[in-house]
Amino acid sequence: MSAMSGAEERDPGGGPAAPAAAPPGPAAPLSAGAEAGGAEEAAALLLEAGADPDAPPKKRLRVAGSGPGGAEGAAGNVKLEDRLYSVLCCTVCLDLPNASVYQCTNGHLMCASCFIHLLADARLKEEQATCPNCRCEISKSLCCRNLAVEKAVSELPSECSFCTRQFPRSLLDQHQKDECQDRVTQCKYKRIGCPWQGPFHELSVHEAECTHPTKTGNELMEILDEMDQTRKKEMQLYNSIFSLLSFEKIGYTEVQFRPYRTDDFITRLYYETPRLTVLNQTWVLKARVNDSERNPNLSCKRTLSFQLILKSKINSPMECSFLLLEGPYDDVKINPVIYHFVFSNENNETDYMALPIVDSVECNKLLAAKNINLRLFIFQIQK
Hints:
The structure is a single chain. This protein is an alpha+beta fold. It is built from 9 helices and 16 strands.
């Protein structure tokens, strides 16, 4: 048998031997296709682990690398509170609810503010409000609160905005208000003009060194004058209300604003009450949203304005003061503001006046309701 060269050695089966492995060297760079394939695999891993790669960071589950358990092992490394966050968060704002939690008929969760906002938007667009997840109809009668979720959310940890320590959400407000040493506080001499504010643990040092207690009486008089002006405006309102209560002719009634649509080419939402009788006269109240702008649903700022209309015929001008307040069973916050007007047969409608609602959230509460229930007071000024 002739000798064979090492390059032509054959295996025992008679076939040519496999070429020897090349010595290790630097890895070749991945092609664009390989990189794209890696990105797709990473996205697939996130989806298998229960995370949406396009979801906000708060809702997306963190995958702690690949391991022997694959996607299941990665999901198992995520903290329990992070997994619960993605389960219990609001389907609209993707944040944990701070108060009431509502659910649609299919169980999708919405925090109270988002739920009210959806109902208000549907009212403005003359549509049926629907769940953003499953598109089933939602309303105050169809949806109910989920008390189990509310209690579970209250036990989840949340970070203090001052000291960054974590506390159960049910205890966080008390900690930030009364206990946190880093909470922002103000000097006790603020009443005499000290502008200092800082962390609570520095308060005692500042107050010991504060120069405002040593100011002269003339320096303090300017500050006290500003405080007196603010106090005077508040007292004027209360004194006006007390003086109105001493009038001979006083009337009040519960009013119910009902939603209607204009007959114009572009319909607009407005509210009107049935005719009501106060002080032996017939009245009607009208209200409009954002001063009847074209698309109030596109605005985050929501306001209501109203006008009072005298429907009766009168023999002489009738000077009145009036105000609107929340009804006995409503939780909307309305500031007391007194309006004045002299009614006559020729001038029987007031201008539209802003309903003194605290903010847009309170306005959404009114818009979300089927009807707006308020209480009207009218005081006739006798000459």
